[in-house]
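thread from #wetlab-drylab

HS: before we spend reagent money on co-crystallization trials with NAP, can we at least see a predicted complex? here's what I'd submit
DV: go for it
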Amino acid sequence: MQRVAVVSGGGTGIGKAVARALAAEGCRVAVVGRRVDVLERACEEIAEAVPGAEAVPVAADLTVPAQVAAAAEAIGELGPVDVLVNNAGAIVTPPAGDDLDALAAAWRRDLDTNLLSAVLLTTALTDRLRRPGGRLIVISSAAAQRGGAGPHSAGSYAAAKAALHGWAFGLARQLGPDGITVNVLAPGYVAETEIFGAGWSEEFHARKIADTLVGRAGTPEDVASAVAYLASPAAGYVTGQVIGVNGGAVLGR
Ligand SMILES: NC(=O)c1ccc[n+]([C@@H]2O[C@H](COP(=O)([O-])OP(=O)(O)OC[C@H]3O[C@@H](n4cnc5c(N)ncnc54)[C@H](OP(=O)(O)O)[C@@H]3O)[C@@H](O)[C@H]2O)c1
């Protein structure tokens, strides 16, 4: 029987690599994001790269409850969900100056995009998760472990990602008795994604690489390999964990 996987933010970057990896493992994959053209192109790429693969675009803004509910209905057509990967996210640039209204709006946008999106999609799909055997994976960030504030982030990104950890631990407790595992993957710096596109200096990229012990940027495939393991039947005894995929930029947490 073919397994069903759902990957939020699966149209680009890490999510696209995850969707391709799960398709290669034999899953039918629902690829969720806001931009229909991006999703359709990603699904075509996956079908070309993995002969026989079925990747289905599901357009939704995951910060909007009604759109999440509609997406869950569409995903439900594929059957019980074996693997749910909450990967959608973004870094919200903080406003300059000390305008508290602007700061509040930026924090809310960051929390909506990185935290609420995962909470809404997971809640809408919880009843549809395979029991036993379901796999829930949350993509966090090394920023949750190291902090991260500066010109590109007001700290709201790190805070939103850290909040995912506590939420995921509770879910692991709640869903463990049903035979569902819940784990957090915290990537370090991963190049070749939209999140670190234009606007980030050469010095920033070089510093991120210098932070690692292996002397290179991560790739979306580095993260996808770890997701594929956590999503596999072999990982049934791994739950409630935060796993770093960071080239050694963060040690042992
Ligand atoms: N790249 C890194 O170094 C790095 C490091 C640590 C953690 N991460 C995390 O990894 C995840 C993937 O990021 P990435 O680096 O692959 O960047 P990316 O290419 O920008 O991917 C983010 C994806 O999320 C989707 N998305 C954003 N807001 C959404 C919304 N409201 N509703 C639905 N989909 C939404 C985007 O698609 P649409 O715009 O079409 O909606 C996009 O496909 C993120 O959670 C990010 O925080 C990345």
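DV: Residues 8-9, 11-15, 33-35, 38, 61-63, 87-90, 113, 117, 139, 141, 187, 189-190, 193-196 surround NAP (CB under 6 Å).
HS: ok that's useful, forwarding to the group
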